Amino acid sequence: MSITIFKRSEDLIHHVNEEKKKGCSIGFVPTMGALHQGHISLIEASAIQCDVTVCSIFVNPTQFNDKKDLETYPRNLCSDIKVLMDSSCDILFAPDVHEIYPHESGFVPSPELSWAGKVMEAAHRPGHYDGVMQVVYRLLDIVKPDVLFMGQKDYQQQLIIRQMIAAYEIKTKLVMVPTEREADGMALSSRNVKLDEESRIKATILSKTLHDIKSQLPHEDVNSLQEKGINQIADKGLEVEYLQVADQNTLKPLSKVHKGEKVVICVAARAGDVRLIDNVLYPD
Ligand code: AMP
Fold first, then answer.
1. Which parts of 7-51 are beta strand (E)?
2. Would you say the CB of residue 161 lies under 6 angstroms from ligand 1?
3. Rounded to 5 degrees, what are φ and ψ at 11?
4. What is the rounded distance in angstroms from the CA atom of residue 260 to the CA atom of residue 250?
5. Segments of the chain assigned E as strands
């Protein structure tokens, strides 16, 4: 399939407006590239629900709290374009930094985020979600999609963007797409290519631990489940940043799970230099 590529927002806006005039609905999948099947699952979900699918590739500097992570983030636009040509993507938006941030300091949304803005990724990556909200707000302003597709893989991110969309009354619906996994359960991630063979094998303990905990819920003492899980991951040589059983809507940590309660179990850990995150929902 062919795709149309835009580097300038002005050109993209013009093209998308023409599609809208024809009555087409617009689906949008923002990414940082190094595309894999997880990204493609969002594109395919968009193609099913919308007439035109726009994917963006932009490694957003403002969301990296770790400079080294930004420098080593995998980038390969040529192979990404080939991947997109085999997908249902219609339009690629691949802007430069000055296109997204034409002014020194762009607008940073600051919605009321409650627990979601304080725990887990927010606590361990200071400023990260300010950068994520900044870039998604800007991209939504350019693309003005009917539907935004985001992955469950970054559960807290989609929750925060959902809250931002509501707070700023943005006319875009957010759809969360389930996490794509390897056959051994490992969640697909652009950062997986940075893992050496041994760390890659060891890292499967993350999804295994999440599923072990899930299989034991509801449980009287969630703290003991979390502790057991942290030890299980540490035994494989990974450094756990957090392992948290939390409420799906607020991300408030739970010490007890009641029947019927909607829960997300989230983990972040380092395998050497590589930081990995994953989560599962309970119940399914
Ligand atoms: P990224 O390029 O890492 O910023 O991710 C772009 C989008 O793809 C985000 O909405 C992610 O949540 C989503 N995504 C990343 N990995 C996966 C995966 N394994 N399954 C589903 N969606 C994913």
1. 26-31
2. no
3. -70, -40
4. 16
5. 4-6, 26-31, 52-57, 91-93, 147-151, 173-177, 239-247, 263-271, 274-282
In this predicted structure, the answer to whether residue 7 has a pLDDT above a threshold of 80 is yes
- CATH assignment, 4-177: 3.40.50.620
As its CATH architecture, domain 190-279 has 2-Layer Sandwich (3.30)
- Delimit the domains of the chain by residue range: 4-177, 190-279
Residues annotated as catalytic are: 39
Distance 177 CA to ligand 1 centre (A): 9
| Among 135, 154, 172, 177, residue to substitute to test ligand 1 (most atoms within 8 Å of Cβ) | 154
Q: What pLDDT, in 10s, does the model give residues 152-177?
A: 999 999 999 999 999 999 999 999 99
Distance from Cα 151 to the centre of ligand 1, integer Å: 5
Q: Are 31 and 63 in contact (CB under 8 A)?
A: no
Closest ligand 1 atom, residue 30 Cα: 6
Q: pLDDT tens digits for 32-56?
A: 999 999 999 999 999 999 999 999 9
Query: d(Cα 23, Cα 40) in Å, to the nearest integer?
Result: 25
Instruction: From 139, 158, 137, select the one nearest 149 (Cα to Cα).
Output: 158
Does the beta carbon of 150 sit less than 6 angstroms from any atom of ligand 1? yes
Measured in angstroms, how far is the CA atom of residue 219 from the centroid of ligand 1? Answer: 30
Residue nearest to atom 10 of ligand 1 (CA): 150
Whether 34 contacts 190, CB under 8 Å: yes
